[in-house]
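#lab-general

N.A. 3:47 PM
ok so I finally got the sequence cleaned up, no stray characters, all 194 residues accounted for. can someone with queue access submit it? mine expired

B.Y. 3:52 PM
send it over

N.A. 3:53 PM
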Amino acid sequence: MATEDARVRCTWARAAEMLEYHDHEWGTPHHDDRALFELLTLEGAQAGLSWSTILRKRIGYRAAFAQFDPAAVAAYDDERVARLVTDPSIVRHRGKIAATVANASAFLAVQSEFGSFDCYLWGFVEGKPIVNHRALDAIVPATTDLSDRISADLKKRRFSFVGPTIVYAFLQATGVVDDHAAQCFRSAAARKTR
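B.Y. 4:20 PM
back already:
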């Protein structure tokens, strides 16, 4: 899809917040543990909702979840969760909120075992993004063997809201998988020709 600035983008990048996210974040390799915890949380929160809804609530999520400091979030108690269920700046789903708190503890355990969540996550791809060269109109799968494997491992480590579809979206968001369409100005192929 070409936009007003004539650059070709992935077809899903239409609304203003989606354009901003697509152009500056989605598919960019992330290595900061807080950013990884944030995206894992937001992808889980998005289940059953639109991504644009989550992007509009992102500032609220940052405030509600201590700027995604996993140590702070892991310390949230039942009273704090109950307060968050009434917070209109986030998705008020008790299960998703409780999962974020539990996932923070699991995240800390992964950091302890691997040195960082970044080392754990990128270890699945030996530190190199998987670059898909899909056509602009290609149907992108909801899951892959990689997302199935990572989902199973995360569940074994007591994470929740980390099914294969959520994990695949997380891999795309964090740049572990580059699913920008080959014609998109943000794709690896397009960047090599500039």
